From TrEMBL:
Domain of life, source organism: Bacteria
Spans through the membrane: 6-26, 38-60, 72-92
Keywords assigned by UniProt, alphabetized: Membrane, Transmembrane, Transmembrane helix
Basic and acidic residues composition bias: residue spans: 113-122
Region listing for Disordered, in residue ranges: 113-148
The protein's name: DUF2304 domain-containing protein
Length: 148
């Protein structure tokens, strides 16, 4: 088991499973905000792992050796690359959700401000004066406005 090619099977399997999980996170529909909590836990875990690697490099080397990686710094780089891909995946999901919301808002505004094609100038065409939605209330009628 001293051959590096046979020792790397464990870390290859771990990295492939992690990358498949990240790909699944990208394509699955989000039903709740629980993914935000999971993202925070993973981020804190990655930071703790990096701090652990800085404080105890010898122990990190032993963990890396058990996983089939030559040095601890390589293991740290693998974990940070996975964290980068996870961040990219969450940013992609967040951007696509924001884009869908913005598209919905733009459509709603467009539908609310659409003009009737039968009239040339819109609803007030030809009158030359503004119309008050409640002509009985207001400053010129002598009555106080209705409470809302």
């Amino acid at each position: 088991m001293d051959d590096p090619q046979t020792r790397y099977w464990l870390i290859k399997a771990i990295l492939l499973v992690a990358l498949l999980f990240i790909a699944w996170v990208i394509v699955r529909p989000v039903r709740s905000q629980g993914h935000l909590a999971l993202r925070r836990v993973v981020m804190v875990g990655t930071i703790v792992f990096a701090m652990f690697a800085v404080m105890f490099p010898g122990l990190l080397n032993r963990v890396a050796w058990r996983l089939g990686v030559d040095r601890g710094i390589n293991l740290l780089v693998y974990v940070l690359v996975l964290a980068l891909f996870a961040q990219i995946a969450t940013a992609y999901r967040r951007d696509s959700t924001a884009e869908k919301r913005l598209t919905g808002l733009a459509r709603a505004v467009a539908l609310d401000t659409v003009r009737d094609p039968g009239r040339e100038g819109g609803p007030d065409a030809g009158s030359g004066e503004e119309t008050d939605p409640d002509p009985g209330a207001g400053a010129g009628s002598g009555q106080p406005p209705d409470p809302v």
